[in-house]
């Protein structure tokens, strides 16, 4: 048996592939276009491992997907590939529509044709697992209960609107064509291989470089943080036991204000890599807010726990310590990621 993963060179996808092959010998075909966010170096430990078949290609390329499905006959598709950064979606939404909407549509159509040609046990076992986000539900007020799977969709950014569109396509392909799908909507991930355009890795690498730590607006926006390998175990649980056509929220019950996240990162760095110039919190700099910035996300993860017995293994305290330590232990990864396209983006976003 084999699974096809899309976007498996990105942050969560590469953690998923590594985690999958730590737990099982079932091969992974990894289709990734290697945009600025894709980094095959994340998968260097799999060099020469026959269980990992990497294919550089676009999920919008129907002929390529058809040929991969025909050649490898996967029992499941786990779909991570996306444009994922909200700020980039504000400055350039086109790529988000192309990959997140059109790419998911192309993948669904290819999956439908492939699944339609299967028979018996192979047809019954096939799954299309769509990896999505809590941002599709919009924003919460301070006293609102966390998002459940029945919350209405109210996406507010081009990114979340494109992900919401892809969720709707997946739902419709199940409802109309019977395609065996499951969808997971997860909260903010953090951990190793996180691209340093996102809050936590950006704060770590900027602090170590003595650069400002840009906090948007008043820094009181709330996100619900989950260590990335807990997201991977949640996906495995839903892929194995999730009900067809259902969605499952995945989250770590870790609501934190952005400014508190930044201060926690600073305190850990003060402990693990003290700076001769004084505490890292001196670098905190409040900057202009993100347009349309969602104030609060929070996930109610009781359904996946009740139905599938999933719970996160890491607390925020253990996960964030592991994360900071990983960045301290991998300066060469950071240095290579910071060359090229990433530097251009930082200049555009933060004025150099
Ligand atoms: P990422 O930006 O780190 O990685 C995305 C990967 O997709 C990259 O390897 C990129 O090269 C690849 N890709 C982009 N366009 C492609 C295309 N057209 N064809 C093939 N590959 C393409 O993203 P991530 O943070 O790892 O997120 C992965 C998935 O999880 C996304 O669908 C995202 O919406 C979802 N998600 C992310 C988070 C989070 O906190 N990061 C939380 C919930 C859900
Ligand atoms: O909620 C899940 C989502 O989490 C995923 O679907 C997205 O793919 C992922 O990128 C993430 O989106 P966010 O916008 O929440 O993540 P980001 O790391 O960009 O920002 C986290 C919070 O920190 C957000 O409130 C904006 C703020 N922020 C971010 C950056 C990059 C800052 O204050 N300063 C910054 O420099």
Give an overview of the whole structure:
This protein is of the alpha/beta class. Helices cover 44% and strands 16% of the residues. The chain has 13 helices and twelve strands. It has helices at 11-23, 62-72, 86-91, 94-116, 120-125, 158-177, 199-208, 228-241, 258-272, 302-308, 316-329, 331-337, 341-350, and strands spanning 3-6, 28-32, 52-56, 76-79, 127-133, 181-186, 188-190, 213-216, 222-227, 247-250, 255-257, 284-287. The strands form three sheets. Strands 3-2-1-4-5-6-10 form a seven-stranded parallel beta sheet, with helices on both faces. It has a three-stranded mixed beta sheet with strand order 7-9-11. The radius of gyration is 20 Å and the shape is globular. Residues 341-346 have low confidence and may be disordered. The structure holds nicotinamide-adenine-dinucleotide and 2'deoxy-thymidine-5'-diphospho-alpha-D-glucose. 2'deoxy-thymidine-5'-diphospho-alpha-D-glucose is lined by residues 84-86, 133-135, 187-188, 198-199, 202, 214-216, 221, 223, 258, 290, 297.
Brief overview:
It catalyses: dTDP-alpha-D-glucose = dTDP-4-dehydro-6-deoxy-alpha-D-glucose + H2O. This protein is an alpha/beta fold and 352 residues long.
Mean pLDDT: 96
Distance between the terminal alpha carbons, to the nearest Å? 48 Å
Order of helices and strands: EHEEHEHHHEHEEHEEHEEHEHHHH
**Percent in strands:** 15-25%
Structural class: alpha/beta
Pfam family, one: GDP_Man_Dehyd
Family: Belongs to the NAD(P)-dependent epimerase/dehydratase family. dTDP-glucose dehydratase subfamily.
Protein name: dTDP-glucose 4,6-dehydratase
EC number: 4.2.1.46
């Amino acid at each position: 048996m084999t699974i096809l993963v899309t976007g498996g060179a990105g942050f969560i996808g590469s953690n998923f592939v590594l985690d999958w092959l730590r737990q099982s010998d079932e091969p992974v075909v990894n289709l990734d276009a290697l945009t600025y966010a894709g980094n095959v170096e994340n998968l260097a430990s799999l060099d020469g491992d026959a269980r990992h078949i990497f294919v550089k290609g676009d999920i919008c390329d129907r002929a390529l997907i058809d040929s991969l499905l025909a050649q490898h006959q996967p029992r499941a598709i786990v779909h991570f590939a996306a444009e994922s950064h909200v700020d980039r979606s504000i400055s350039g939404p086109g790529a988000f529509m192309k990959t997140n909407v059109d790419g998911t549509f192309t993948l669904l159509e290819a999956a439908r044709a492939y699944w339609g040609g299967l028979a018996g046990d192979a047809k019954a076992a096939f799954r299309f697992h769509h990896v999505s986000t809590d941002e599709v539900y919009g924003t919460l007020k301070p006293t609102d209960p966390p998002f459940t799977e029945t919350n209405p969709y109210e996406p507010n950014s081009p990114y979340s609107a494109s992900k919401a569109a892809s969720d709707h396509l997946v739902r419709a392909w199940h409802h109309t064509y019977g395609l065996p799908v499951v969808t997971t909507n997860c909260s903010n991930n953090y951990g190793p291989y996180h691209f340093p355009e996102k809050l936590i890795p950006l704060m770590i690498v900027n602090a170590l470089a003595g650069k400002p730590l840009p906090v948007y607006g008043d820094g009181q926006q709330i996100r619900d943080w989950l260590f990335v390998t807990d997201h991977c175990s949640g996906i495995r649980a839903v892929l194995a036991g999730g009900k067809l056509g259902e969605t499952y929220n995945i989250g770590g019950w870790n609501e934190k204000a952005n400014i508190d996240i930044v201060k926690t990162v600073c305190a850990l760095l003060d402990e693990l890599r003290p700076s001769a110039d004084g505490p890292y919190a001196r670098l905190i700099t409040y900057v202009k807010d993100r347009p349309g910035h969602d104030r609060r996300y929070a996930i109610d993860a009781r359904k996946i726990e009740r139905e599938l017995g999933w719970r996160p293994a890491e607390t925020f305290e253990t996960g964030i310590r592991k994360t900071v330590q990983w960045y301290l232990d991998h300066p060469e990864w950071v240095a290579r990621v910071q060359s090229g396209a990433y530097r251009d983006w930082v200049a555009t976003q933060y004025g150099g």
